[in-house]
Amino acid sequence: MSQWLLIVSALVAGLLIPLQVRVNASLGKELNHPAMAGLMSFIVGTAVMLAVCAMLIAGSKASAPDVKQMAGFPIWIWAGGLLGAIFVTSNIVLAPRLGTSVMICSIVAGQLIGSITIDHFGLIGAKTIPISIPRIIGAVMLISAVLIIQFGDQWTRKQAANSSAALSSGNSGSAGGN
């Protein structure tokens, strides 16, 4: 698979995240309980993953995981479900309060900072990629984007109100002189 196709696939997956956020936030509102909405989301996701795994196993020579082998895995390897639950519940709680775009930008900024840290130290089996000036600049730009998206409209409205007030006071003075 080409690098570009992989990047486009990642972009498409990324496009689904705001949709998931809005769907889960709406479910949380309907249920009036963010944790219950998260549970329902995970139940549906688990059912889908069971079906996908069943199809993949049936269509190949793969077999179901070996429970004895899994028992020997490091304990931290099971944290993905916990982290996913925190992520989904955070989305359900934060999306209605922050708005989808600010929340997603904040999440992406956090992901970038976390990714740079994981890469730099080679954590959890990642290939070590030292932190660099371009990576730092990229992270700062992304954090700046969060701030612009969050506060840019407020600044624009304030500037428009100030301009409008200045024009009004200037026009009323000249209109009285005619």
TrEMBL record:
Membrane-spanning ranges: 35-58, 70-94, 100-121, 133-152
Any single Gene Ontology cellular-component annotation: plasma membrane
Annotated Pfam families: DMT_YdcZ
Keywords: Membrane, Transmembrane, Transmembrane helix
Protein name per UniProt: DMT family transporter
